[in-house]
Amino acid sequence: MKALFIGGTGTISSAISASLIKQGCELYLLNRGNNNARVPDGAIILKADINDEANVCALIKDLNFDVVADFIAFVPSQIERDIRLFAGKTKQYIFISSASAYQKPLSDYRINESTPLSNPYWEYSRNKIACEELLLSEYRKNGFPITIVRPSHTYDERSIPLGIHGSAGSWQVVKRMLSNKPVIIHGDGTSLWTLTHNSDFAKGFVGLMGNAHAIGEAVNITSDESLTWNQIYQIIASALEVKLNAVHIASEYLAACSDYDFTGSLIGDKANSVVFDNSKLKRLVPNFTATVRFDQGIRLVLDYILFHPEFQKDDPEFDMWCDKVIENYNAAMNKR
After folding, report:
1. CATH pick for 2-154+195-221 out of 3.40.50.720, 3.40.50.11030, 3.40.50.2300, 3.40.630.40
2. Could you tell me what percent of the chain has a pLDDT over 90?
3. What is the mean pLDDT of residues 233-254?
4. Collapsing DSSP states into helix, strand and coil, what is residue 64?
5. Whole-prediction pTM value?
6. Are strands 93-96 and 227-228 parallel, antiparallel or unpaired?
C-alpha cells in the first residue's frame, strides 16, 4: 500500500504511521518538518506547508496514492483545497472528523454513525460537520472516494486525558493531585465518557485503509470502555498513589467563567454522557478490538511523563484559577 498522510506525527496519526511502517507500507508524510522526532524510520518526508497549494501540487505531480489521509483539516476551505490536490490521485481520501459533531444535547446516550450531527455550542464541531457535508457532496456528485472517521477522546503517552485543564495542558492538574490540592471535576462526575488509546485507534484506522467497503462511509473509532469522570480521575489518582481530593462544580458555571472558554469542550462535548456503538467498525474491520483499558493506558502515560520533564509544563495561571473557583464554590456552599 502507498499512502500519504498530511500531518502524520500527532497523537492519533503517529501510532498509525508506526503501524504502517511495520507492515511494509510505502508511507509519505507531508508536513512542515517541525516534529521529526515522531517520524518512524522508513517514512518518506515531503517537507511543505499544505496551505502552499502550488508547492504541494508540484511535489506530488508524479505521485499517486492508494490512500490520502488529512489529519489537520478543520474547515471547509481546507477540504476544498484537498479535493483540488488529490482528485484523480488517490483511491481513497480519509478525513478525520470528530465525535463531538454528534447532536448536543443527545437524544440517546448511545451513539452510532446515524446519530444526527448538530452542535450549537462548539464552532470546531460545526466546522467538522461542514467539512463532512462538503465531502459527501463531492462523493455523490463526482465520485471522490471518501471515508470519514470520527474519533472521540484519543490519547497517547504524552497526554493525560482530563475534563478540565488550562492552556498548557493537563500537567498542572496532576501536580495538584501530587500536592494533595483539590481538583475540579465538572458536573457531579457521573456522566459517562470514552477514552481511546492511540494504539487501539490505529488498529481500526489501518483496517479501513484500502477497504472498498469503507468508501462513502462515516465510521466511529473508539474503545468500547465507558467510564464516569469520577472513575477517570480516581484511576489517575490511584496510578499516582495519592488520595483524590475532588470538588464537583457545575459545567454551566465553569463555562460561564470568563477566564477560560469551556463552553465548547464541556457543554458541547465532555459534559454529555457518551457510549459508542462500534458495530459498524467491527463489520468493516472484523478483527478490531480495543485492548488497552484506561487503567493500563494511564500508567503508560504517567510513567512516560514523570520521566520526561519536558512534558511537565507548569501553568500557574490555571492553578490560581482553580484555587479561585474552588474558594468561591466553598464560600457559596458554606452560606447554605
Report:
1. 3.40.50.720
2. 90
3. 97
4. coil
5. 0.95
6. unpaired
